[in-house]
Amino acid sequence: MGAAQDSPQAAFARFVRRAIDDAKSERGWTVSDVAAHTGVGRSTLFRWLAGDWQDYPELAKVRGFCTALDVPVGVAFRALGLPDGEQPGPARRDRIESSVDADLRVIVTRLADPGVPPEEKKLIRDMLRYLAHRQVRRAG
């Protein structure tokens, strides 16, 4: 079962299942809690989980889902087979090759990997939140 052969429905269903499972294990949320915090209805969540959709999910709902669960939106878009919205060009290629982007790709990969234990994912997310909100001390 290679990822290249997956339908967008199957790939997105796996993505949603991982995100909901993480919310359950890390936050103690039920599907109802996920629905309330993300603004995505329970019936929509169950359709996403079942891969039961013909038209692509509303991107605003996907963004809300990802934001509330601290999941990168790009991971959801890739599961759906959608581009990230940026056109590849020389400036983008240079940016992708930077060491910062390489580090971010490793982090996103670990967060999306179903083989990484939820405790480790929580540690990664907690550290990222800490780093994002700490004050920068400037020398001098």
Provide an overview of this structure:
The protein is mostly helical. The protein is 66% helix and 0% strand. The chain has 8 helices and no strands. The chain has helices spanning 8-27, 31-38, 42-50, 59-68, 73-80, 90-96, 99-112, 118-133. The longest helix has 20 residues, at 8-27. The chain is globular. The model is unreliable at 85-89 (pLDDT under 50).
Class inferred from helices and paired strands: mainly alpha
Rg, rounded, reads 16 Å
Q: Give the low-confidence spans.
A: 85-89
Largest sheet: none
Strand content: under 5%
Shape: globular
Question: How much is the average pLDDT?
Answer: 81
Distance between the termini: 56 Å
What's the helix count? 8
| Strand segment tally | 0
Helicity level: 55-70%
Instruction: Give helix and strand order, one letter per element, not per position.
Output: HHHHHHHH
